[in-house]
Specification:
Shape: rod-shaped
Largest sheet: 4 strands, mixed
Strand content: 25-35%
Organism: Bacteroides thetaiotaomicron
Order of helices and strands: HEEEEEEE
CATH class of one domain: Mainly Beta
CATH topology of one domain: Immunoglobulin-like
Keywords: Signal
InterPro entries: DUF5018 (IPR032186)
Protein name: DUF5018 domain-containing protein
Pfam families: DUF5018
Radius of gyration: 29 Å
């Protein structure tokens, strides 16, 4: 009777162990979605933080992928045809990025008279550093 009980427990333990081994080895990791972009700043634009001035967006002349420095071009006078020099000290920055890519610090209002450094954190964990600066055309 005791021998029977030990055999029964051994069979139960063996079955559970086999089940756990099968469960652990049957799990597989999902494949990478190679069609989804995993990195890159797709686009960037600046507009006046005070929308009563204008809602026009200014973009860099360079095309993505952007290098280390992103120069956003502005006309010398704004609105066009006026003699009012443009003020780029209070510009709202927006960016277009793929899913699972983030930017730090968060894009807000920036003074584009000085260099502003941002980091683009790609979905694979790599970090691209960019410097954003305004460039007034002469």
């Amino acid at each position: 009777m005791v021998k029977n009980m030990i055999m029964k427990k051994t069979k139960t333990f063996s079955a559970l162990l086999l089940g756990m081994i099968l469960f652990m080895t049957s799990c597989e990791s999902p494949e990478d979605n190679i069609s989804a972009p995993t990195y890159a700043l797709i686009g960037i634009a600046a507009q006046f933080a005070d929308e009563s001035i204008s809602t026009q967006q200014f973009t860099p002349k360079q095309q993505p992928p952007f290098g280390d420095t992103i120069r956003i071009q502005f006309p010398r006078y704004f609105p066009a045809g006026s003699s009012t020099p443009i003020d780029i000290s209070n510009m709202r920055i927006t960016a277009t990025i793929p899913v699972n890519v983030s930017i730090r610090p968060k894009l807000t209002v920036m003074d584009l008279n000085v260099a502003n450094t941002i980091e683009v954190i790609n979905s694979d964990g790599t970090i691209d550093k960019h410097v954003i600066i305004g460039e007034i055309e002469k």
